[in-house]
């Protein structure tokens, strides 16, 4: 810093400047001899510079140097010695990197004491760093800083140097204690060791599944994974029950967070637990976090199907009975079958029985029957879970009927199938109705939109994992059933394409449309429900072989024929289809109570909030229930607490505490004023898991917040300014500040400049003969 010791008043400087300027002007006006404009400016400049140099010397410029004399004090060095500091980044342990930094970089003021401490769960004074190892079970930064302030018989240090990877695994925030340090004028300087990039690891973070599902119904499990370091790698994802693998899919990892859906059908009724797992991969940091347990309750609730068919008697056989018998062969499915002539039914026939089922005596009425036909009210339609419309003319339905069908799917979670035929899809004009909103294909606009020829089906690769396709005991058998045993089809509706969001399960092997191969089977989630488009037929003529030859011979010694075929694959296909379509509708009837846990695994002696949601069949919340949350370990009840309704969260809230490690069952039971009851259950694991090594990414931002709140500095791993570090470490405890002044005006530089400028001006004048 430069300062002038002689500081005359500003007006003297102005007067002197005006006097000098006037004198210079007079001298040049009265000078003898000729000089050009450029020469005059040169001489003027030289004279002004000489005068300015003289003025600077008269002002007595001095260099001021501030010298800080610290009161001898103490700096506390805190080094994290938890287990995460034992991790190697680029070949060097974080603990070793901290020790090397202390030796190479740390600079304290002269004569200062340095007190060294290691900390993990508590603070420990260290005389020799070689006597301590990074094996602490947790990182409690707040506790360590708080302990430092209250060391018996010692004043707080002048400053603190905190070295850690920032992975604070305690439940106490260090920010409040850092602000207290700031109030006491004790800065906390921080250094982060360790890399911030995520280490190679596959973590199965969460499993989402409906907790109440119908028996044999397809259940969707949504998994959330994180896969740092494994981008592009294809891995298997398993769902298993005990050691039995129920389903396996292949998933390509993206190296970050992603979700995948796995669908399977539970094998038995009752409360069941399962394990979702990604097998450990070579080079993975941890294998323990690759799996999660989940559970749900399987309820034996029949699926109710309304099947409407326009194919009547063909070749002496009642065509609607094929599908009716295939579905009724499963004890968990009930079917009401209605009939309609292909091009409409005369009103005089509507109240008459169309067919009799000789197997069980069921009467099959027509779609237009005034009381036993198609349900004409929403309430009546909701008595079913799935509606199948097979080649039924749209004129059989009123506008309100079609509108109810659309709401049945989108609002009430029902399932809907349209089966191909001369009066289905675009050929039947359905693209001009509200049904177009729920069909998973864009229907053709031309009429007729169908073709009749023999052709094989082709299965896209994206379809094999869908539950409807699972006809065999394993993936290999399923592929064989679809590719080798599925008979040829004989016709289809030529729809344009599958809609966005729909999944194509089967397509024509050779027939293209302008958008790609012609679609045979497509499914889609629509609103709260599910729908399917089946552009071929399930009866004579287009589906004649499909319904009669897709199975195994009853007598293996005889060739496969309609009379010598068990139609097992045809039946299983329709069971899968109906159960998949009905899943949302059935679940909405069963799942009146939903238990929500923040975590599926907690450490011992931890309080955990619990939320319980209650609703009716329409999905509206019920607020008049008595809700209880129970925790059990085996048959032993560990805890029972009431849950109270919260108006803001619209949930019943409770808090449970898990006392010790083990596997627990958390049950929420609700009793409503109308006498209805419901419950939901989840599995909760209590484990002593190592938070220190769960995620080993360094947290520099956490340490930077500590420095900011206390008035400290964030130190670098290398390249720190020693002088700045010494000042920072010294904190605010200064004994005195000395200012050393060195005069600058009497140095040879200033005198030489002044004499030189005057000499040059004199020489120029003499050369030009100027006075």
Molecular structure report:
- With about 775 residues, the chain is α+β, with helices and mostly antiparallel strands.
- The chain is elongated.
- The model has no long low-confidence stretch (mean pLDDT about 85).
- It has 15 helices and 42 strands.
- The longest helix has 23 residues, at about 570-590.
- The chain folds into five domains: about 1-65 and about 740-770, no CATH class; about 70-195 and about 705-715, Rossmann fold, CATH 3.40.50.410; about 200-300, Immunoglobulin-like, CATH 2.60.40.10; about 305-375 and about 385-400 and about 415-425 and about 445-590, Class I glutamine amidotransferase (GATase) domain (Rossmann fold, 3-Layer(aba) Sandwich); about 595-690, Immunoglobulin-like (Sandwich), CATH 2.60.40.
- It is about 25% helix and about 35% strand.
- A hairpin with a 5-residue loop joins strand 40 (about 660-670) and strand 41.
- Helix 2 (about 35-60) packs antiparallel against helix 15 (about 750-770) and helix 5 (about 175-185) runs parallel beside helix 13.
- About 40% of the residues are buried.
- A ten-stranded mixed sheet has the order 22-23-21-18-24-25-33-32-31-28, with helices on both faces. Strands 34-36-39-38-37-40-41-35 form an eight-stranded mixed sheet, with no helix packed on it.
């Amino acid at each position: 810093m430069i300062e002038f010791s002689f500081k005359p008043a500003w007006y003297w400087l102005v007067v002197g400047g005006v006097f000098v300027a006037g004198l210079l002007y007079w001298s040049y006006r009265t000078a003898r001899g000729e000089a050009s404009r450029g020469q005059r400016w040169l001489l003027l400049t030289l004279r002004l510079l000489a005068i300015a140099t003289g003025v600077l010397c008269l002002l007595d410029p001095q260099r001021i140097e501030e010298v800080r004399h610290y009161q001898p004090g103490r700096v506390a060095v805190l080094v994290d010695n938890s287990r995460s500091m034992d991790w190697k980044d680029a070949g060097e342990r974080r603990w070793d990197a901290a020790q090397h930094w202390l030796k190479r970089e740390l600079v304290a003021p002269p004569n200062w004491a340095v007190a060294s401490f290691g900390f993990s769960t508590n603070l420990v004074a260290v005389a020799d760093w070689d006597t301590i190892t990074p094996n602490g079970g947790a990182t409690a930064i707040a506790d360590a800083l708080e302990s430092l302030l209250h060391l018996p018989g010692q004043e707080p240090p002048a400053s603190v140097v905190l070295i850690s990877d920032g992975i604070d695994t305690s439940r106490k925030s260090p920010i409040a204690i850092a602000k207290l340090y700031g109030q006491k004028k004790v800065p906390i300087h921080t250094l982060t060791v360790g890399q911030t990039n995520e280490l190679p690891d596959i973590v199965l973070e969460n499993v989402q599944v409906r907790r109440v599902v119908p028996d044999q119904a397809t259940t969707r499990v949504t998994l959330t994974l994180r896969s740092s370091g494994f981008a592009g790698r294809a891995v298997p994802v398993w769902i298993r029950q005990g050691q039995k693998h129920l389903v396996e899919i292949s998933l390509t990892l993206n190296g970050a967070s992603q979700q995948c859906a796995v669908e399977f059908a539970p094998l038995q009724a009752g409360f069941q637990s399962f394990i979702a797992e990604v097998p450990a991969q070579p080079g993975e940091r941890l294998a323990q976090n690759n799996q999660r347990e989940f559970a749900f309750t399987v309820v034996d609730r029949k699926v109710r199907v309304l099947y409407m068919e326009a194919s009547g008697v063909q070749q002496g056989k009642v065509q609607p009975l094929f599908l009716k018998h295939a579905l009724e062969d499963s004890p968990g499915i009930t079917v009401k079958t209605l009939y309609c002539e292909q091009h409409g039914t005369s009103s005089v026939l509507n109240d008459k029985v169309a067919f009799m089922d000789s197997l069980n005596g069921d009467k099959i009425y027509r779609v237009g029957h005034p009381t036993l036909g198609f349900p004409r009210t929403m309430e009546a339609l909701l008595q079913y879970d799935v509606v199948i419309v097979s080649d039924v003319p749209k004129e059989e339905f009123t506008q309100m009927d079609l509108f109810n069908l659309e709401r049945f799917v989108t609002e009430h979670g029902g399932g809907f199938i349209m089966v191909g035929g001369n009066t289905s899809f675009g050929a039947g004009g359905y693209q001009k109705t509200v049904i177009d909103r729920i069909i998973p294909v864009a229907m053709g606009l031309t009429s007729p939109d169908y073709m009749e020829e023999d052709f094989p089906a082709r299965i896209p690769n994206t379809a094999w994992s869908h539950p409807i396709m699972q006809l065999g005991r394993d993936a290999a058998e399923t592929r064989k059933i679809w590719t080798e045993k599925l008979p040829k089809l004989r016709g289809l509706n030529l729809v344009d394409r599958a809609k966005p969001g729909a999944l194509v399960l089967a397509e024509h092997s050779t027939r293209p449309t302008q958008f790609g191969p012609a679609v045979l089977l497509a499914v889609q989630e629509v609103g709260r429900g599910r729908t399917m488009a089946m552009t071929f037929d399930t009866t004579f003529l287009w589906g004649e072989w499909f319904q009669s030859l897709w199975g195994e011979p009853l007598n293996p010694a005889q060739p496969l024929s309609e009379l010598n075929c068990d139609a097992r694959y045809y039946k299983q296909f329709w069971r899968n289809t109906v159960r998949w379509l009905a899943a949302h509708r059935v679940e909405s009837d069963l799942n009146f109570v939903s238990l929500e846990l923040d975590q599926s695994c907690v450490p011992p002696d931890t309080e955990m909030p619990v939320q319980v949601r209650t609703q009716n069949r329409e999905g509206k919340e019920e607020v008049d229930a008595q809700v209880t949350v129970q925790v059990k370990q085996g048959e032993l009840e560990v805890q029972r607490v009431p849950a109270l309704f919260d108006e803001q969260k619209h949930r019943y809230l409770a808090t449970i505490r898990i006392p010790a490690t083990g596997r627990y069952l958390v049950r929420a039971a609700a009793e409503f004023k109308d006498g209805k009851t419901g419950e939901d259950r989840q599995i909760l694991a209590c484990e002593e898991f190592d938070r220190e090594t769960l995620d080993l990414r360094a947290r520099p931002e956490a340490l930077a917040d500590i420095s900011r709140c206390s008035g400290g500095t964030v130190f670098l791993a290398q390249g720190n300014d020693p002088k700045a570090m010494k000042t920072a470490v010294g904190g605010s405890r200064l004994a005195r500040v000395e200012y050393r002044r060195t005069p600058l005006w009497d140095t040879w530089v200033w005198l030489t400049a002044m004499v030189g400028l005057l000499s040059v001006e004199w020489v120029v004048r003499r050369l030009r003969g100027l006075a």
